[in-house]
Amino acid sequence: VSLNNLLAPVSLNYDGYTKFGIISDLHLDLKQNRTSCPSWNGTLTHYQSRYGSTGCDTKYNFAALTVNSFSDLLNDVGNVDLVFCLGDFVNHYTNNFVSNRDLISNSSHLFQSKLSVPIYSSLGNNDMPDDYLQPSNSSQFFESIWMRISPMMNASNESLAKHKAKETFISGGYFTVEHSKELQIVSLNSITFSVKSNVNISLGMQQLQWLSHVLSDAEVHGRAVIIIGHICPSLSLFQISNQKANRTMMWKEEFISKYNEIVSSYADVIKFSLFSHHHANLWFIKQMQGQEHESNTGFVSYHVLPSISPIYENEPSYSVGIVDNQWNLLDLWNYFCPLSFYTRQDKEPQYLFQFSFKESYFNYDDENSNTHGSAEDFPISNEFLFNLTSRLLDVHDMQYTYKKILYNSYQFLFNFAKVSPYQMFCVMTEDAVEGLKKCLTNYKFTL
Question: Which of 93, 286, 298, 328 has the most CB atoms less than 10 A away?
């Protein structure tokens, strides 16, 4: 393991640019001892370490170390305006109203004790009292969670009241709030849309109607929008690699089609969308039928960020994003902790710079890298992502870079002997099983 601890990519200079932090899938576990923990499949993982181990959720002392490290990094890189927490505060297998609420309390206290900027959160499937399933008394549960996450936003009462943030969260677990006059945050309850959700279809459609209204209002008032959530409307690369066709969908198909219809109509309003859940660094880009990719219009894209919890034998990671003065996304930096190394050494873990999205991939988009002199100022647009994803089909080094980054963050679950570049391309550009089958057939694969 290389322990070359850099704060930022060596070839890009973002001094003075606005930045934001991203931390997700903390999966805080307060019951771990020093010798064992429940693993992702319910069996025991055995280890000898003060700070836990890969194969386990996050011990409290490692969570505290992580938040301290994250806070120090944000202070060092400078000009950090806000932080996103993308859900799953709670460890796996808790499934208890009071325990889940208390774990979210512990997590929010950790964040607030070290981070002075506004923190915007979304709910994850493990934050529900029963994994993926909203309780019958969901309003009571959502109100108790709102009391714990709303203080982290530092939002004015006027902004909260203007968009009825508390009301929509209590009724459905989602909200919007103005971070500034120029920027509005939309936090989705993506669990409602999950194929494993117990929520009535009409409630999911009600949230999407609300989203359409919010985006329309933002467009009228000239505000940029960032969408955050937990489960993205994508296919699962893990399930594809394991040939589980019946489990490839992350959202119910009727929700995906409606969501795509809405967000593609407001592509110039939505600057970018951030999700998590996969415990890995991914991106997805969908070109809507009948649309040319000459601008952002006609695309739906989202970035998927990695996890703090190392339960899937991934190394814990958090990220920093960089934007221009119009909130266009310019880069994503990933920082990771080689916890397995520190576990073997029984030393205090450290987080290290891992990679820059722009530095890793920019030169693989021939059109953009040849026509733009400054990589720093070139946004990670939908068109850029689409062209970049297409390069997976014919650029060997690009395939290697993508797999290397994905393997580092998710090494246990992905068997790359089974995943070809063509499968990767189809999963990243399709969002429904029938479209995936058609795409794979074009490259002589079956599902």
Answer: 286
